[in-house]
Amino acid sequence: MASGLPEPEPLLTLVEALRCLPGVGVRSARRMAYHLLQRDPQGALKLGAALTEAVTGLRHCERCNSFTQDAVCATCSNADRDTTLLCVVETPADQNMVEASHGYRGLYYVLQGRLAPLEGVGPDQVHFAQLLERATDGVVREVILATNFTAEGETTAYYLADMLRARGLTVTRLARGVPSGSELEYVDAGTIAWALMERRPTQG
To answer: Which pLDDT belongs to residue 194?
Structure first.
């Protein structure tokens, strides 16, 4: 790492660790590291403890693949949810946005990613087999593909639609109220609610 002055090894290690965050380069990571060490050492300790607790204390829900402390998350265990509807999203952040819309009362499946052949991310890495098992449990009747409207998200939706329709399921896609090229995490809840209500059958 280029620097005007030699830096202690623990500081270099901290900077490199912070660089794993999305959109954080060397300079941003170094600013964060100096801020934590210089101005908020207690916050740094709290952050480290919280990260350790989250990484060691959370697991993937056996039903929806999102994060949970228990074998089955609170959403999947909720008897008031519509078990015939299954909404497929890319990330837990996307799931939170759909939930915040208050326009959906079904269940979820979180892919924890999306197809990206150029990056070596295929169906095995995105847990397609687990999703198919979940969607064909005999209870689910409609699968809503709520992957993002990016090139990778559209490819993922197209691939999944073929697989799910071949198994006799009704497959719908969020309506285009969600702007093309956008990610659900950054779309307002009202737009997501409208897209859910106006969802359309996938082509096939």
So the answer is: 56
pLDDT score for 176:
58
Cα–Cα distance for residue pair 91/106, rounded to 1 Å: 17
Alpha carbon distances (Å) from 165 to 84, 111, 147, 187, 190: 15, 18, 17, 28, 29
**Domain 60-201 belongs in CATH node 3.40.1360.10:** yes
Q: Which residues contact 61 (CB under 8 A, 6 or more apart)?
A: 67, 68, 70, 71, 72, 73, 76
| Comma-separated ranges of CATH 1.10.8.420 domains in the chain | 9-57
- Whole-angstrom distance, CA of residue 58 vs CA of residue 161: 30
- Map tokens 């859910």 to a residue: 196
Which pair of tokens denotes residue 94? Answer: 């996307």
Beta carbons within 8 Å of 83's beta carbon, 6+ residues apart: 106, 107, 139, 140
pTM (2 d.p.): 0.77
Residues in the chain where the model's pLDDT stays below 50: 1
Question: Where do you find CATH 3.40.1360.10 in the chain?
Answer: 60-201
Q: What are phi and psi of 116, to 5 degrees?
A: -150, 80
CATH number of 9-57: 1.10.8.420
